[in-house]
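Note to self: user wants both folds in one dump. Writing first protein now.
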Amino acid sequence: MTTAATTPPTPPAAPAPATPAESPNTGPSGFAAFPRVVAMEWTKFRTVRSTVYSFLALVIVTLGLAALITWLSVSSWDTLDADRRAAYHRDATGTILSSGIGLGQVAICVLGIMVIASEYSTGMIRASLLAVPKRTPMLAAKGLVFAAVTFVIGEIVSFGAFAIGAPILRSKVRVSLGDHGVLRALIGVGLYLMMLGLFALAVGAIIRHTAGAIIAVIVFVVVLAPLAQLLPGSLGKHVHAYLPTEAGQLVGQSAQGPKDLLSPWQGYGVFCLWTAVLLLAAGWLLKRRDA
C-alpha cells in the first residue's frame, strides 16, 4: 500500500518593512520643500486677525498724522519754529513722511514680533517645526512672507502720505514726485518698514515672549535715541547715528540733513547689518533650543 507524499505548506511571506509615509509637504530627505513652506507661512500670516489690524493701524495712523501735522504746520507757518520751517524747505518729502511714520512704525514692530512670538505662546511653533524639521527654512519663509507684504503696504502708505501732504504744503513749499530724491525717499520708506519688521521678527525669535520682545524693540526704537544724545561730545553723535532705526530712517529722506553723519544708503546699510546679525542669531538659537 502506497501513501501519497505530502508537501509541507509554504509559510506566508513576511510583511514588507513599513516605510514612513511621505508628507505632501516634505521631499525625499524629509525636509519641507521651501516653496511649500512659504505657502504654509503665507496661509498662517493672512488668516490671523492681528495682521489685518496691525496694517490697518499703520495706514490710519500714518496717513492721518501726516495730513494733520502738515496742515497744522501750514496753518501756523508764521509762528512755526525756524528749524521746522527750514526742514520743510530742505526736505519736504522726508518731513511729511516722518510726521506719520514715527508713530505708525510701532504697529510694524508689534506685528513683526507677534508673527513668531505668538506661536511660542500658543504652542503652534511645535506644529510648525514638526512640518519643517530643519527649522531654518521655516524662519526664512516666515521672514520672506512678512517682508514682502510689509514692503507693499509700506509703499502704499508712503505714496499715500505724500499724495495727501504735498498739496496741503503747496502754499508754503512746492514739492513734486519729479524733484531730486523724492522718489528714492518714497521707496525708501517701504524699504525701511520692511527691514524694521524683520528686525522685530528677529528679536521676537530670540526672546520668544511677546511682551518682553515688544519692550526690547520699543527700547531700541524710542528710548535709546534720546539717551544716546546725552552722551558727551562726538561719542553721543556717533552712537546716535549708528543706532538701527536712526540710521535706517535716513533712507526716507530726500536730502541729507546738515547733522547727519551717514548718507541715506549708508544709514540703510547699517540698519540691514543690525538686522542680519539678529536674524543669524535667531536662526542659530532656533536650531539649538527646544520649542
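First done. Writing the second protein, which came from a different request thread.
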Amino acid sequence: MVTLTNFHFTTAKAHITRVGGEVVELVDKKGLIPQTDDPFKGNFDLKALRFFFGRMKEIGYWQEELVKKFREDFGDSP
C-alpha cells in the first residue's frame, strides 16, 4: 500500500508503515522553507503527484491485514 500525502502526522505515518505500507510525502518545495511568507505551506507538488497517478496499482484486503496486525499486537477486544 502506498499513501500519497503532503505531510503525515508522525503517528499516522508510523501506523501505515507498521503494516507494510509506504508513505510518499509530496509537499511542494516551498513548504520545506520555514522562512517563506506563504500563508499555506501544505500544498502538494503537483508535478510529483501527476507522476504517481497512473503508476499505482490497486491492492485488496488492506483492511483485513490491518485488523490482523492489530490483533497480533493487542489480542481480541471484547
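Dump finished. Worth passing along: The longest helix spans residues 62-74.
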